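To assess whether ligand presence alters the predicted conformation, the chain was also submitted together with inosine-5'-diphosphate. Input:
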Amino acid sequence: MNSTEQTLSIIKPDAVERDLVEKIQKKFLEKKIKVLKSKKIQISKEEASDFYKVHQTKPFYDRLCSYLSSGPIVVMVLEGENVIQENRKIMGATDPKNADEGTIRKLYGISIDKNSVHGSDSIENAKKEIDFFFKD
Ligand code: IDP
Ligand code: MG
């Protein structure tokens, strides 16, 4: 069943640094996904650790949190039909080496760490992650 959803997208430091924000946003607009909110920020390592706490037991957790806080990021609320899944498709696989042609990570990802974008993976996490960055 189709329904209008919202999801959180992050353009990670490697992509902001290479000036890829507009190119990445264009990938969403082409798929009729609206960029409802967008802001460029830099977060502390503590905030990154809080954001990624689902991964706290993983061996790459510390590196992941250092990386997300290493430079400016662009956080966005995306809206569209089934946008949580759609955004995951547009992003491509976590490791750019395994990402399909035409996906953001295939086009722009450098490595599994510097994979250019984050996207929420479920309705529950989308709500939590949108709140994390955009609670008014
Ligand atoms: P996702 O970003 O595709 O949802 P997750 O499994 O949620 O992937 O992992 C979060 C982030 O942690 C990934 O985007 C990636 O940058 C990093 N990561 C995931 N798995 C590994 C790994 O095996 N080694 C190093 N970094 C990883
Ligand atoms: Mg994830």
